[in-house]
Structure formats: C-alpha cells, structure tokens
Amino acid sequence: MSSPERQTLERWDREHVWHAFTQMAEYQPLFIERGRGCTLIDIDGREYLDATSSVWCNVHGHRHPHIDAAIIAQLERIAHTTSLGASNSTTVRLARRLVELAPAGLNHVFFSDDGATAVEAALKMAFQFWRQTTPPRPEKNLYVAFEDAYHGDTLGSVSVGGVARFHALFRPLLFDVLRLPAPQLYRLPPGITPATACDYYLSQLDQLLRARHPQIAALVIEPLVQAAAGMLVQPPGFLRGAAALARQYDVLLIADEVAVGFGRTGTMFACEQEGVAPDFLCLAKGLTAGYLPMGATLTTDRVWQAFLGRYAEGRQFFHGHTYGGNPLAAAAALASLEVFEAEGTLARLPAKIERLAAHLKRAAALPPVGDIRQRGLLAGIELVRDRASREPYAWEERAGWRVADFARGRGVLLRPLGNVIVIMPPLAITLPELDRVMDVVVEGIAMLDAR
Ligand SMILES: *Cc1c(COP(=O)(O)O)cnc(C)c1O
C-alpha cells in the first residue's frame, strides 16, 4: 500500500475508531490484514505468531479451509434470518450438536451475540425462573460471584464481575452481588496452604450459602480458571465442591465457559474435568472458532419447563438479540466442531500441553517470575517486583506490556493482563510454533530483569 494511503488510514483509525480497552491518546495503529494458520500478517507484510488466539477465540487457526468453505456455502443460501419465533436449519443443527457435546441435561440453547450476552441471558433466566417455578420463590434474586471475576462488559455481567480496575467506576449502575474471594493458590490468606486451600474456599462458600440461600438465585463461576483475573487457576476439586454445594442449597449454577470452553483446558468443556453439569453453560469466544460473533446459553429441562405455558400467561423469556442464532455464525460453529473430529484436535493437545509445561518450567527460573499457572493450553506467567514477598509491579510500570512490546518486535503477538503474560495460542499451534512463542517470551522476561 502506498504510504500516503497508509497514512490516511492510520489517521482515520486514530480519529474515528474507538478501540476497546485502549488509551486512544497513546494508540499506535497495528493493521492486521491477513492470516494463515497461527500467523497474522500486517499491512506491511510483517508476520506475527498469534499467541493469544486473537484474544482467546481462535481455535483451528486462521483461514481454515473447512470453516471458510462452510461460511461461503451458507452465504450462498442466506446470511441472516431472525430467530425470533422462526428458524434456520443450520442454527438448529448447531443447537443439536451443542446439546450432544455439553454436560448431560443441558438440552436447550438460547443464542445471542457474544460472551457478555450469553452471561446476561443466564442471569435473567435464573431470575425469571425463580418467579415462575412451582411454588414461586421470588425472594431468590441475589447472585454469588467471585472477586476478580470477569463475565463481560454489559451492566449485568459487570455487576457479577469483580475486576476493580475495570468495574469500580461503574459501581453506582450495578446491582448488589454477594462476593467471595477468588479461589486460587498463589496469594493465599494467612494460615492457608495450597493443601488446605480447596477446603478453605469451599467452607467460605458453604457459610455464605447456608446463611443466605433463601435469597440466592444463582452462583456464577468461571470453571477451573478465572481467566481475565490473570489466569487464576482454582484448586483441584473446587469446582466439583462448589457445584455440590449449589445443588445442596438449591442455588442455580451458572458456568461461564466463554474463555475455557472448546478445548482450551484440554477437554471440550472445563466442567467435564470435575464431572460437573451446571444449570447454565455460557459459551462464546471459541464457539465459532474465532470467526464470527456468537454467544450461546445452554440450560436444563427444569429451567425450560418454568417458562412454558399459554401465551396469555406471559411466561416466555422476555429477552433477545437481533442477530442471535445468525446462520453464518452457526455455519462457522458447526464446521469448527467438525474440524475437532476430523483433525482429532483434542487428542493432539496433550503433546502441546506438555511442551508448554516444559517451556514454563524454563520461565519459572527467571527472577521476575513470581508464579506460573497453567491449565491445558492456557497459561499465565505472573511477573513480580520481588519474588520472596510476592510484591507486584505497580501497574503503571507496564511490566507485562514491556515484554509484549519486545515480543512484537520479534514477531510474536501477546496481550498481557497487567503483570501476567498470557499464553493462549490457537489449539492448532504446532510444536515448532509453540517453541518460537516461548523462546521469545523467555527472552522478553529475561530482558525485563536486565533493566
Ligand atoms: C471474554 C469473556 C466474556 C465476555 O465475552 P465477550 O464476547 O467479550 O462479550 C465473558 N466471560 C468470560 C469468562 C470471558 O473470558
């Protein structure tokens, strides 16, 4: 592209496009124009490995021939038709496939646009469910959620979210939530060790549910890993224990698998690893393999039944999104699930997970590394100012971004979460590509120490 045209585009980008989670006064344009497999290609033809799956959503790589072809074939029939009281065969087939793959009992699929709306729909369904169940329990209208949780950026999902840096400002607009400490293993309360952490966090949940369950509609959880919190890995057994407590106290369980679903932690869904079947399963990001926006909220017969009745009873779910169930997105999602089978995507993961673990071990030896957290093909490397005291870098120091800027110069795109370097490549990444990503990450962290 000629440089005057290029400069015009950069100017338009700075003046007109308001980028998400970005300080626009300091924004430096990066135009990704093409992609192939796990490689992104910018406007100048420079190549980068996509080490964050284009922010956690790409699964099988870019321009996968099977997914490309499925979208084109759908486009030749119809791009969009409403799912308000009407249907489309591609969307129906996807619903059926999701029900087959999801934990048992999740037989009903509500489609929306993204992760935030998938969670928003679950929150409102849970609320309406308690009003319409027999006998009605309208006093059950509170939610339990975790500190540092992230469930999206609409007001309902921000209400259950707990990332102070993003969410505190909006506090006057949010509804009240009962909050529990984030179950994790690095910064434990005094007297708690990794061996006792699971019991500790479960006892906190137990106390809260015992005291308040008559008013609690639902418990919202990111299964196994609180991703945006900085890849906080939960103690093994916590998810299973939390699900059992929710059942015991008749509190609905909303599992937000927007980040961890679709193979990310090694199984199709994270809930499988602890034998958990939630009341709601929220999906987005990897649902369409990172091709098109789509969210899905799966729920049970019990919830569904409470919404049935004659029209005049007004029991239907009063909520919808214009593009919910969009056939192009559904075609991409169905094709992605076919690729999982055809390419044995899940069966090929253990070798990659092991390789990642070996590289992380190398990183753990570097002085600025305080903690390494891995679950499947997802990892966080927490950088600290002081290893012994676990004192974090001040966020203004941009420790994570300094490593990311270094990596970008070496052809690897990262997007840190504060002081946590996130490694979240497409599941399709090859071992040599993974080696390259991690060589650059290790070099970048070592550079930080040489300051
Ligand atoms: C990204 C994310 C969301 C929000 O998804 P969007 O598609 O960005 O709205 C919700 N929950 C979790 C766990 C996420 O990681």
What can you tell me about this protein's structure?
- By secondary structure, the chain is an alpha/beta fold.
- It folds into 2 domains: 134 residues, Aspartate Aminotransferase, domain 1; 275 residues, Type I PLP-dependent aspartate aminotransferase-like (Major domain) (Aspartate Aminotransferase, domain 2, 3-Layer(aba) Sandwich), CATH 3.40.640.10.
- Helix content is 37%, strand content 17%.
- It is built from 14 helices and 17 strands.
- The strands form 4 sheets. The chain has a 7-stranded mixed sheet, with helices on both faces.
- Strand 13 and strand 14 form a beta hairpin.
- Helix 13 crosses helix 14.
- The longest helix has 19 residues.
- The radius of gyration is 22 Å and the shape is globular.
- The structure holds pyridoxal-5'-phosphate.
- Pyridoxal-5'-phosphate binds next to helix 5.
